[in-house]
Design a protein that fits this description.
This protein has about 260 residues and is mainly alpha-helical. It contains 14 helices and no strands. It folds into three domains: about 5-115, no CATH class; about 120-200; about 220-260, no CATH class.
Length: about 260
């Protein structure tokens, strides 16, 4: 008796999907290497839990499925396996055991987001605080847009534009009219206009001399009484904490001792 595994069932379903995607009418179902054609047709990278936003990636996956008319639950579940790395395949195998290939796509979708969604604030803070320091203005704007959309794909265009501009240097933002630049596309066009100005702008550095601890202490205003006693390098207004009366007494005592 031939043993039917979950892997063979999934591969068989994927071959059926490929029939929809291929221009050829017949596909050799015994040649499992043809499964790679699905990767070639989808405009989608494999999911990487370490670097990819789970929600945004899954939305892109569903869009690609819709584009190729893969609307059935089983079709999407089968196709998903080809876009997962080894570490994520452990999750896929567990889901296959628990729910099977003929389960609802909604169940897999919810589990995927709960398992791989970024629950920290790191990606949000990185996107919001990302600023232009050097290099191409347009490249900065495009990357900032991607970072913002990755953590919130539903952000409105006005807010998206404002957040991109917020990371630009002042000499650029001062030349941008907020009433005219209402969406990222208009902003990108403006970036190209100012690109040459950004390349030719000389870099200005403000040097701040750093003093050693002893030099810094010496620069502080000295206690005048201690100064007259010849202690200008040992006592300052900060280190000489005694009352003025006490310091005067000490100074007079020193003078008497010196006279004797």
């Amino acid at each position: 008796m031939t043993q039917v595994t979950s892997q063979s069932i999934t591969d068989g379903k994927l071959l059926e999907i490929l029939e929809k995607l291929s221009d050829k009418s017949n596909i050799n179902k015994e040649n499992h290497s043809n499964l790679n054609k699905l990767n070639e047709k989808f405009v989608l990278k494999k999911f990487d839990n370490k670097t990819t936003n789970a929600k945004q990636w899954l939305q892109s996956f569903e869009s690609e499925c819709t584009r190729f008319n893969l609307n059935g639950d089983t079709e999407r579940i089968s196709a998903l396996r080809l876009f997962l790395n080894d570490s994520e395949n452990d999750w896929y195998g567990s889901m296959l055991i628990q729910h099977g290939l003929d389960s609802l796509w909604k169940i897999w979708k919810v589990s995927f987001l709960k398992t791989f969604a970024d629950k920290s604030w790191s990606s949000v803070m990185y996107a919001l605080n990302f600023k232009h320091f050097n290099g191409s203005l347009l490249e900065y704007a495009l990357k900032k847009q991607r970072l913002l959309l990755e953590y919130n794909s539903e952000i409105d265009t006005r807010t998206l534009t404002d957040l991109i501009v917020a990371g630009l240097p002042t000499y650029i933002t001062s030349k941008l009219d907020r009433q005219e630049i209402t969406d990222p596309t208009l902003l990108f066009s403006a970036m190209q206009m100012h690109e040459n100005q950004n390349k030719n702008r000389p870099k200005h550095f403000t040097e701040t001399k750093r003093f050693s601890k002893s030099e810094a202490e010496y620069k502080k205003p000295a206690c005048q009484i201690c100064y007259k006693m010849g202690k200008k390098t040992d006592f300052t207004l900060k280190t000489c904490v005694g009352s003025r009366k006490t310091r005067m007494t000490v100074a007079n005592t020193v003078k008497l001792d010196v006279g004797n």
